[in-house]
Design goal:
By secondary structure, the chain is an alpha/beta fold. The protein has nine helices and seven strands. The chain has a single domain (10-198, 220-243), classed as NAD(P)-binding Rossmann-like Domain (Rossmann fold). The protein has helices at 21-30, 43-55, 70-84, 108-136, 148-151, 157-177, 195-200, 206-209, 220-231, and strands at 10-13, 34-39, 60-64, 89-92, 139-144, 182-189, 242-245. It is globular and about 45 Å long.
Length: 254
């Protein structure tokens, strides 16, 4: 029987209190991982998640950090190492939210925020956590990208620019640290159903669903399942990949 077993692994999820992050926390913990619950502002949700993980019999710690600030991430690394030991799995999920509009109307600050939270977050996480992985000859970096990076639709420019920059960084990182047994991959969700949709009864969107080959929106759990796969030994020979989880809405070509 094949199963995903993360027993003995320590996983860090940035943006862990967000719509997708919280499901990743639960899923990796169910697979056996101890979890670092990163948050920026939502301390209450972080505490709820910590209690859930501990109820599963796993260790969990809460760490507040600004992912756009290197010193803040390095301080997070020190706190995590002291309390749980070296991190085996890094999931870069946090991103700054903003109001989308046209390039001519989008503020330059929004472009900067996406670069900082998509590209520089991943740079800082790499610098903070890759050295210990290199020393141990194992590790996983998983970046949460987006189907938008392939769509390039109107009003997506700042988000797409940040995520495409992240894509380039992750592909280079995969080449640079692969020789040490570390994989670097990206999960690219489509427009995903989360708790917010369930609470507001907004799960359905006929216009969007009609364009998706599977004729439905994906769920937060389906995103977390792919993250768990990439975090596990089952994905040991996959690196440098951009994997859409979008029901076929975007399809990378060869």
């Amino acid at each position: 029987m094949i199963s995903i077993d993360l027993t003995g692994k320590v996983a860090l999820i940035t943006g862990a209190t967000g719509d997708l992050g919280r499901v990743m926390v639960r899923t990796l913990a169910k697979a056996g991982a101890d979890v670092v619950i990163h948050y920026n502002q939502n301390a209450a949700k972080a505490e709820e998640l910590q209690a859930e993980v501990e109820d599963m019999g796993r260790r969990a710690i809460i760490v507040q950090a600004d992912v756009t600030n290197g010193e803040s991430i390095y301080a997070m690394k020190d706190a995590v190492t002291e309390q749980l030991g070296a991190v085996d799995i890094v999931v870069a999920n946090a991103v700054i939210q903003y109001q989308w509009t046209s390039i001519l109307e989008q503020s330059v600050e929004d472009y900067a925020s996406q670069f900082e939270s998509c590209v520089m977050q991943s740079v800082y996480l790499s610098k903070a956590f890759a050295p210990a992985m290199i020393e141990r000859k194992r590790g996983r970096f998983i970046g949460i990208n987006t189907e938008c990076a392939m769509q390039n639709f109107a009003t997506q420019s700042a988000y797409v620019a940040g995520k495409r920059g992240m894509d380039g960084l992750y592909r280079v990182l995969a080449r640079e640290i692969g020789e040490h047994g570390i994989t670097v991959n990206q999960v690219a969700p489509g427009w995903t159903i989360s708790d917010r949709d369930r609470q507001n009864n907004t799960e359905r969107s006929e216009g969007y669903e009609s364009k998706v080959p599977l004729k439905r929106r994906g769920t937060d759990q389906e995103i977390a399942n792919v993250v768990a796969f990439l975090a596990s030994d089952l994905s040991s020979y996959i690196t440098g990949a951009y994997i859409p989880v979008s029901g076929g809405n975007v399809m990378p070509t060869i």
